[in-house]
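User: Run a structure prediction on this.
Assistant: Running it now.
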Amino acid sequence: MMNAINPLPALVAFYFLAMMVLTLLLMLFFSSCTEKANEDKQWKIKKELVEAFFQNQEEFLAGSFDFPVNPPEAKDYYSALNFGSNLHLGEDWNNRLLNDFGDPVYAIANGVVVFAGKYSKSWGNVIRIVHLLPDGEMVESLYAHCHEIFVSRGAKVNKNQKIASIGSAGGVYTPHLHFEIRKNIYLPVGAGYGVPDGYLAPTPFILGHRKVEKSYDFSSSYNRIYSANTNESMLLQAVKSNNIRLVNDLIRRKVNVNARDLEGETPLMYATVAGQVRILKSLLKAGANRSLRDKYGYTAYMRARFHSKQYPGIVKLLQREKP
């Protein structure tokens, strides 16, 4: 007669395995909750700091912007890795002539420092500054991989004030300045690469927010700073930064208004979903092709229909386009 198999050891093993899995899941859950709570706390602290600062410093507006290296024109510097290239969310600045380790980094406009210090091994020393524009909007500039930092959290900074020096994040990279501009000032530091929601192309934004003469050559400045191998057309970069002055300057110079990026996006398509009515009118007047389709098969008019409640006026502008 065969001996009956005792199921108890298997049940005990299963019980302990289930408890281990449950414990691990609970740890991950509470870790996530703690991280979310810390983010919420930092968001609240940052919001209070920014609001308190600009309530007491109403005259401290960012009336104009310059470049973060060798301002105002970033002479002898260029963007080695552009915004949008390989999903890059900023610009990597280098000196054309020399090793730029230790070169000065400057605040691009008046503002308040909301973070200054070492963030992580890959980011190194980071500075984040919030700027209040004359129209009441706020943007944030971020300066990363710094060697030295000369400002602290809560400090008031002026345009062209020296705030840091170019570094390499402790030898993680070759020396350069990773520089970002965000229209959502409450984003986390992030990864430096990804979907550009809440981000602005820095050079077009700066060129569009300068106090310059009417004869200022925007497109030449853009060409001098940006590498020739950018993945996006200069015009699309200008549209994504809502830079109407650069858009019109480029149109006058007969650039291709239908140039696409690697995703098949045209300036007209982007301006449609971004609700940029003035830019849209300029593109249409310049002969932007309304019948072009994105990689999903949608025209600008189709996109406008999707956003009709948010931007009803854009649908009217594109009514000649058949869905």
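The beta strands are 77-81, 91-95, 104-106, 111-120, 124-132, 138-146, 156-157, 162-165, 177-182, 199-200.
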